[in-house]
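Slide 14.
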Amino acid sequence: MIPFLKMRFPVALTLVCAHLLVSGFKVEQLSMIQHSSVHKDDSEAASIVSEGCLEPYFTVGDQCLFFATFAELSYQDARQLCHSLNGELAAVLTATRLKNIIDYINDNDLTGRKYWIDGSDQATEGDWRTSSGLSVPMGTPFWSANLVFQEPNNGYDIENCLEMYDAALFYMNDVRCTNLLTAICEQALGNDTAVAAMPEVQDCPLTYTSVGGLCLSFMTWAEESWEESRQACHGFSGELAAVTDIEQLRAIYLYLHQEGKTSVYTCKRTSKVLQGSLISVLQNQVSMCCRDRAPFWGFVKSDVLEPDCGAAENCLLLNADGFHYFRDSSCSLLMTPLCMYPQ
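Slide 15: predicted structure.
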């Protein structure tokens, strides 16, 4: 078994050699990759890199991924590269996977690029599928959105392949399949349906319903300011909802669309940790490290991500016009309270 593992990766690289040279990839770069990834002693070559990932893949969340930063290829050529490494373009099928990849890109200085991931609607316009036929999740928190529209928009009627776009802080976007981007490959591990773990259904009190593992109350009969909304929640032995996990945001988004609800207040103005993102209110200003805002916050416009730190915008809401991403707003706006029962 050891000799087989040791020769597997150089064979895979040889298969893509000719194409990479045609694409402008330099021989010295290929030699460097081979040297760093192959010329190891027998024990290293036989070892699993981490938690079941074989070279050149490594663990990112529950996936084995390889960021092929040495080449920029078309979508089809990127798939062929991944195939030669016994993999496929990475499938981003849960909100947690999206956040894990975004965090990894930010933490490892892999920004400033555009990445191909597994997904296309070339067969049927608007029906986004992975190469194995699984549905690509639509809506929030996966696709880039501003206050007017959410991707995919099939620009020029020729955007049929799926990227994670640097200028959009690596939210998903549809783009021309002929564009030259970096591939994120995923090690082939068999049939992976990648369904998000179902949260435990909570036994919630009257007026509350179990959504995403939380007991929530959508007070559709009321429209209140932020402070009035908080008092309304207190009247039902609750508090404005604090959404701290990306799967919770996804579950709330799906529930709101299922029930046809629109805008709700959520979260507190005081310091709150949101999966690595710190919101702090100091002198009526919201501050946040820009790189940590995806995939919770939406765009105001193409190049401005919430919170846009307006002096009069100090409260957090989920707005239908913003596709239910986090948005900072005036605390005096009248919105439906979203309450959470303490657990």
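Speaker note: Residues 209-340 form a domain with the Mannose-Binding Protein A; Chain A fold (CATH 3.10.100.10).
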